Amino acid sequence: MIIKNYNELKNYFNNSYDENQENIIDSEKMDGYEMDFDLSNSVEWILKFDEEGNYTSYPNEKLKENKFRITKKHCNLEIPEHRHEYMEIVYLMEGKIEMTVDGESITMKKNDICIMNNNVKHSNKALSSDDLAINILLTDKVFDSVFMHLLSDDNYISNFIINSFYSSNKTKKYMIKNIEENSFLESVLINLICEYYSNSIRCKSKINGCLLLLFTELSRMFNEPKEININKKCSKIKNNIVEYLQKEYKETSLLKAAEHFNFHPNYLSNLVKKEFGKNFKDLLIDIRMVEAGRMLRTTDKKINIIMEDVGYFNESYFYRQFRNKYNTTPFEYRKQNLIKS
């Protein structure tokens, strides 16, 4: 089956789509949760309490394996307040949805898109048979792969994703906007959903391409001057990284630095590459060599002590890196540059 356009997609959802196939949550039901609506027997939930006592939806095995999923919101089913351990994008193709997001009542209308990070508590009233809403569920693994380079840009959507997955900041954020009808972004979304439910050659490649285009276009749509930058660290990250490395150069590593900044290592690596034009390892070596040069000029420490003070215990490797930086040996460098007190 190949779905080619908006009308074919609507026809598929109205006539061929089986809601029972989309059991996005596949564990035990909650015990003792009082509901004023009926859950279909085919719908199973992982709704557990998080450390703060919030009902939390966790990704099932299929979502973990595929990194993202697209589902149609169930009709005639009210969803209680909860949050996710993944990012959710709600796209309304037809009708309306009444939702409560982060304590605020909102009504989504046709062609609205709502992006919620994994900290936002939300719920929605039951949809009617005339309403058609799509959920796009994304885990952090989506951005660890082909989309990681997008996150090195300092814009609103990039910072939104960073705070959703790669920061310890528990900021609750959501964004909602209306997509212009017949726009390129609408076309990307429809193509993404069509491809997901089609059985076509190179389906996975096209889906990845559509996701890449989707977040590129979202970064443009949400990156308006009036928007407040979510992650203020990004505007100062270059100075912050230099200051950190100048203090911690002896024992730090990419993993330790990422932990310090509450970033994913892949994200920090891409950010360093963008900001400094070199990878993290080379930047660290450069800072260590600068410090080694300073100590050779201003102290009478033995060279092997300086070597260890800047984080090296392999003499040949230290000498090689020093020569690459200064085009001479540590001994000759001191002889030529020693500042006598």
UniProtKB/TrEMBL annotation:
SMART domains registered for this protein in UniProt: HTH_ARAC (SM00342)
Pfam families, alphabetized: Cupin_2, HTH_18
Residue ranges of every copy of the HTH araC/xylS-type domain listed in the record: 239-336
Any one GO molecular-function label of the UniProt entry: DNA-binding transcription factor activity
Keywords: DNA-binding, Transcription, Transcription regulation
Entry keyword Transcription regulation: yes
Gene3D superfamilies, sorted: Homeodomain-like, Jelly Rolls
PROSITE patterns per the UniProt record, alphabetical: HTH_ARAC_FAMILY_2 (PS01124)
Protein name stated in the entry: HTH-type transcriptional activator RhaS
Upper classification of the organism: unclassified sequences, metagenomes, ecological metagenomes
Gene: rhaS_77
